[in-house]
Automatic annotation (TrEMBL):
Pfam families in the cross-refs: fn3
Region (Disordered), start-end ranges: 68-92
Protein name as catalogued: Fibronectin type III domain-containing protein
Domain Fibronectin type-III: 39-128
Organism annotation: Microbacterium fluvii
Top-level lineage group: Bacteria
Comp. bias regions, Low complexity: 74-92
Signal peptide: 1-27
Keywords from the named record: Carbohydrate metabolism, Glycosidase, Hydrolase, Polysaccharide degradation, Signal
Length: 533
């Protein structure tokens, strides 16, 4: 084996790849080779923490110090290559440029030499120690659906770039990234805030968030009901708002506040004639934005009068619409109704009641129009139910002792009647029945009867019959008593004898009449002959 190694060595020397250097003799007191120091291992776990124009770098000491104490560590900065030396396992590197990204490596040194460089730290960026802003963003505008909010970012370091994110109940609103935001129905009931983020090289990015607004309510569109005319009452209709909203009102004439007009209703006074009326509704609810909305204005307030129906509501009667006084130049139109339903073709100022309206209530609407002024509709009160009535007639002969009978004709079913008889237009005392027995007191007079019909819910109507012929005496009549004839028919007729007796004749007073005659010719016509004495 020794011969083989010697041969190999000789060959290498001859080839020039191996040279031999003389070695000094080793003293007898030299340390053994295992005790000779070498350079340490590299430090590890290098960690850097950025500061303002500086970074704190720390590390772990090498696992092997190379057999000699570590006397120093050197921290090398990249970029730039500046170094910092320390005997501790951490140090602060200063003189860095804020906003520049740096990494750091560390070497360890002992008496034998310097280690290899450590693995570089994670990159860090030194930043200015002051924040970009200490301001809190502020929102201006009214937080209502459809309202536009604007953010005031406050004071930031000059040159700071700002971005915005609007939020509803702290959740980002997609696409809402400008300095203003118009609230939509999707944000109804949610508190709105905005986050402002500032960035600038050399500074830490900073986000500042505004205070939240009150919650946007649902705001209705107020309208005005009623007619804008002097003396009439308008009513404010708030529209649809958030449930639980309380309302306040303010009425205006031509845009000017009307003092004291702060209720939901407003009666137009003389001062508001020819002015346009509007109302502002203000809604409040705890936790929500107080919001106000103003209605559209009416046309100019006009002058009108109540509509009235004159006439009696009976079939065949003519009713008339009474208009009263309206603003000069107002054009009036009419529409008649039966139980609230328009009557076809009934568009004049008068209406003759037809049988189709029997038992229905009649009313009329009068519409007044004038350019530039409010159109006003005035509706009359309804009549009583339309009654069917008839003109009564009289049956029977207009002769003394005869009985006349009033015939009512056809009236609304259920009508009750009362009667009054007249002689030559003068009421006959006590003649209040449906029949009248004629007496000599009405001879020569014409008889009429007035029938009055009544039924609940219908008009009470009186109708008078045509007059009879003048009441006359009949040619004959029954005796007034056993022995006497009435004075107007004094001739006694005795049926058994067939003889009639004149007043003053011998047997006149002794004769019991079976029939009395007004004239001798009447007696003769009845078959009697005159007594001789």
């Amino acid at each position: 084996m020794k011969k083989l190694l010697a041969a190999i060595t000789a060959a290498l020397i001859m080839a020039g790849t191996l040279s031999l250097t003389p070695v000094a003799a080793v003293a007898d007191d030299a340390p053994p080779a295992s005790d000779i120091a070498v350079a340490p291992d590299a430090p590890f776990d290098v960690v850097a923490t950025a500061a303002d124009a500086a970074a704190t770098v720390s590390w772990s000491a090498p696992e092997a110090d190379g057999g000699a104490p570590i006397t120093s560590y050197t921290v090398t900065t990249a970029p730039g290559g500046s170094t910092t030396t320390t005997d501790a396992t951490s140090t602060t590197v200063t003189g860095l440029t804020n906003g520049t990204e740096y990494t750091f490596t560390v070497t360890a040194t002992n008496e034998a030499g310097t280690s290899a460089a450590s693995v570089a730290s994670s990159a860090v960026t030194p930043l200015f120690g002051t924040p970009l802003s200490t301001s809190t963003p502020k929102i201006t505008g009214t937080a209502v659906v459809g309202g536009t909010l604007t953010v005031g970012a406050g004071t930031w370091v000059s040159g700071t770039s700002l971005t915005y994110q609007w939020m509803a109940d702290a959740s980002p609103i997609e696409g809402a990234t400008s300095t203003s935001f118009t609230i939509t129905s999707a944000q109804r009931g949610a508190a709105i805030s905005v986050a402002v983020t500032g960035t600038k090289t050399g500074y830490a990015a900073l986000t500042r968030t505004s205070a939240s607004t009150t919650r946007p309510p649902t705001v209705g569109a107020p309208t005005i009901s009623g007619y804008a005319a002097y003396g009439l009452t308008l009513t404010a209709k708030p529209g649809t708002w958030t449930t639980g909203t309380s309302f306040a009102y303010q009425w205006y004439a031509n845009g000017t506040t009307i003092p004291g007009a702060t209720k939901a209703t407003f009666k137009i006074g003389a001062a508001q004639k020819a002015k346009k009326i509007s109302v502002k509704v203000t809604g409040t609810k705890s936790g929500f934005t107080t919001a106000s909305k103003t209605s559209a204005a009416t046309a100019k307030a006009t002058t009108s009068s109540a509509a009235k129906v004159t006439g009696t509501a009976v079939v065949g009667a003519k009713l008339k619409a009474t208009t009263g006084s309206w603003l000069s130049g107002t054009k009036l139109s009419y529409r008649w109704y039966a139980d609230g339903v328009a009557i076809s073709g009934a568009t004049k100022s008068t209406y003759t009641v037809g049988s189709a309206q029997k038992s229905k209530k009649i009313s009329v609407k009068i519409t007044g129009e004038k350019s530039g002024y409010a159109t006003v509709v005035r509706t009359s009160a309804s009549t009583l139910k339309v009654a069917k009535v008839a003109t009564p007639s009289i049956s029977g002969a207009a002769k003394v002792t005869k009985t006349l009978t009033a015939k009512t004709g056809t009236w609304t079913a259920g009508t009750s009647f009362t009667y009054q008889w007249y002689a030559n237009g003068k009421a006959i005392s006590g003649a209040k029945k449906s029949t009248l027995k004629l007496s000599s007191a009405v001879v020569g007079k014409k008889i009429t009867v007035k029938v009055t019909g009544k039924k609940s819910g219908h008009p009470t109507v009186s109708k008078t019959s045509k007059a009879t012929a003048a009441v006359a005496y009949p040619s004959s009549t029954a005796p007034a008593s056993e022995w006497n004839c009435p004075s107007w028919a004094p001739i006694k007729g005795n049926a058994d004898s067939g003889i009639y007796h004149m007043p003053g004749q011998r047997y006149y007073n002794a004769t019991k009449p079976e029939e009395c005659f007004r004239t001798q010719s009447a007696a003769v016509a009845a078959g009697y002959r005159k007594a001789k004495v």
